[in-house]
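User: Let's play a game. I give you a shape written as tokens, and you guess the letters that built it. Ready? Here's round one.
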């Protein structure tokens, strides 16, 4: 119940995005990632993703008093994964679903990267609109150890303008967008993207000092 109270329902039809197209496909690098908190797929908690931003953008500006919600990165609830807690390192997000493709096997590639780069890069997979039971079974069957969050109503994938499965989002420390990739990758190709992110993050850190 605490999770339901804090992870507010965000209907996909109520979200307005100012930019069309897939996130990162229109020279959008160096923009901050939208904040969110998602239920941990392993914890079996109720509720949808919280996508309320600090600036109230998801509740539409100006925010009516009855539309204000706890910002995603201020959520305090057992079983919530907050993206802001992953901003201390380079970050890779994976948006995936099981309908109409073989996307779950790409999570095996994501898992390989998680094991290879753990401690240097943060990883979070977000399942979109699959049943909790199905996701839990896939986690067990594939022996995934990387974090998996649930976007039950698709509000988060809509906010991030996910256009295909899988969609990988690569971000600098601090939650600043570096790039995106869409579609199937093998281990070598995916590791190349992660290596590029690590190098770019180190260069950016030197530049900002």
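Assistant: Ready! My guess for every position:
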């Amino acid at each position: 119940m605490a999770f339901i109270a804090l992870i507010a329902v965000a209907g996909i039809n109520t979200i307005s995005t100012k930019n069309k197209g897939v996130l990162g496909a229109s020279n959008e690098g160096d923009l901050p990632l939208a904040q969110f908190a998602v239920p941990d797929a392993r914890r079996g908690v109720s509720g949808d993703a919280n996508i309320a931003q600090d600036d109230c953008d998801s509740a539409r500006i100006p925010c009516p008093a009855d539309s204000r919600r706890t910002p995603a990165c201020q959520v305090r609830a057992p079983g919530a994964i907050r993206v802001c807690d992953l901003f201390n390192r380079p970050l890779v997000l994976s948006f995936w679903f099981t309908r109409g493709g073989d996307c779950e096997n790409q999570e095996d590639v994501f898992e390989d990267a998680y094991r290879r780069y753990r401690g240097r890069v943060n990883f979070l997979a977000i399942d979109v609109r699959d049943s909790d039971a199905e996701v839990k079974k896939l986690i067990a069957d594939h022996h995934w150890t990387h974090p998996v969050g649930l976007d039950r109503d698709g509000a988060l994938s809509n906010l991030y303008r996910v256009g295909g499965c899988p969609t990988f989002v690569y971000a600098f420390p601090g939650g600043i967008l570096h790039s995106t990739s869409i579609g199937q990758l093998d281990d070598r190709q995916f590791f190349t993207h992660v290596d590029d992110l690590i190098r770019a993050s180190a260069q950016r850190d030197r530049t900002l000092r």
